Amino acid sequence: MNEVVAQLMQHRSVRSFDPSPIPEADLREIVAAGQMASTSSNVQAYSVVAVTDPALKRELAVLTGNQAYVETCPALLVWCADLNRLSRAAEAHIAPGEEAYADSAESFIVATVDASLAAQNAAVAAESMGYGICYIGGIRNRIEEVSSLLGIPSLAYPVFGMCVGLPDQPSGQRPRLPVEAVLHWNRYDAERGHGPVGEYDETMTRYLQARTEGRKSTPWTKIMAEWLTRPNRLHMMEYLNNRGFLKR
Amino acid sequence: MNEVVAQLMQHRSVRSFDPSPIPEADLREIVAAGQMASTSSNVQAYSVVAVTDPALKRELAVLTGNQAYVETCPALLVWCADLNRLSRAAEAHIAPGEEAYADSAESFIVATVDASLAAQNAAVAAESMGYGICYIGGIRNRIEEVSSLLGIPSLAYPVFGMCVGLPDQPSGQRPRLPVEAVLHWNRYDAERGHGPVGEYDETMTRYLQARTEGRKSTPWTKIMAEWLTRPNRLHMMEYLNNRGFLKR
């Protein structure tokens, strides 16, 4: 295993940070490395808002579900799928009345994937530089308010946040599904998940017990049932439609 | 700049491959590195179909728009957003008639982002091992047929393909937008894109001219106008609805 793969295999989410600011040059290097990820048809349909202002981080910590580390991390990168910049850039070349398709499911996928690939490259860069990161899906909890606060325009939306900072204590690594559960050969085999998933239930039960001194031991399949049956962020469709996304 | 960042900055899409097969152990290592990417609430909502069968690659090359390298690459990884595996795994813990929310826009985002983060980690791993990669968005051109061919179940969809193999000739690197165009500080500033985008139009014009011996010189903003006004993959919404996605 080479050093890059070894670094990827060492990934863990960091939720406790040294409060010292990150040099602006490092944040720019992290984002520039993110930009080198592949992008569909070179549309580069994403933007990043780097939040370093303490008052703003405090507000965002509340809006994302009172996650203290959103406030205490030195920088919160808010990764946005963004079809707004390219739409404005293209304006001069589009005839009045000509139809544009930023509102299609396809365009939504392109922008969401572009933002995600760039963000993950940035995460790898940050970790190589000694920083720790944590994705913040909670940015979608009160996404309307987050969007107003950060001035996100139409045809753009915050996909997730990412806390970045120097870790100030070691954090544990959560085991993943066995590779057999996710990797299929030449054809998706719905049956092959069963064995590995059962094995993973046991792995996760042991992991949770060890972390909580025996207080928690919910199997992964049960946690998934709880996740699936929770009416989570059901405002997203209306929010996205109002932003001009997913209309057809 | 450290070596990992240097590798990320060296990324280029590879479209011409040495045909020799990739050892299965390498493909497993690439996917396992992908799995270490962050995942929302540990749902791990993605699967990968590794297509190595020559006849299948040939069919997929046709279905993705006659991209020869889909056939000639030794392995095509088809990355699927997958809420099917976890839904089946959770079944035993869900009461009959209890409502589940795999069909929400939120769940669709979770699965699409999960697949993308894993894929980008895998891309970084593959490149560190000397392989080249190329994302294939064309997998969505005739996605219904691709899904049948690979046996993708409901509540799952192929987000993109990824050709993997040893590069057999050097390939050029496409310049990206200046970091100033994508990185905002504390608040999205719609005005700050203008200058950098104009600069990028010039960069891309020079890049295209150099690559095509002067035959092509379309500015990026015009290419974006063409992209926006092309009715691209408008079947996606209906396809996704039929798969059980994006119903609310």
Distance between the termini of chain A: 45 Å
Proportion of beta-strand residues of chain A: 5-15%
Based on CA inertia axes, which overall geometry of chain A fits? globular
Multimeric state of these chains? homodimer
Structural description of this entry:
- 2 copies of one chain form a homodimer.
- With 248 residues, the first copy, chain A, is of the alpha+beta class.
- Chain A folds into 2 domains: 3-173, NADH Oxidase (3-Layer(aba) Sandwich); 175-239, no CATH class.
- Chain A has helices at residues 3-9, 24-35, 54-63, 68-72, 84-90, 105-128, 143-150, 179-182, 194-211, 220-228, 236-242; strands at residues 46-51, 75-82, 132-136, 156-165, 183-185.
- A 4-stranded antiparallel beta sheet of chain A has the order 1-2-4-3, sandwiched between helices.
- The N and C termini of chain A lie far apart (45 Å).
- The mean pLDDT of chain A is 96.
- At the A-B interface, helix 1, helix 2, strand 1, helix 5 and helix 6 of A face helix 1, helix 2, strand 1, helix 5 and helix 6 of B.
- Chains A, B: Belongs to the flavin oxidoreductase frp family.
- Chains A, B: It comes from Cohnella ginsengisoli.
- Chains A, B: Residues 9-165 form the Nitroreductase domain.
- Chains A, B: This is Oxygen-insensitive NADPH nitroreductase.
- Chains A, B: Keywords: Flavoprotein, FMN, NADP, Oxidoreductase.
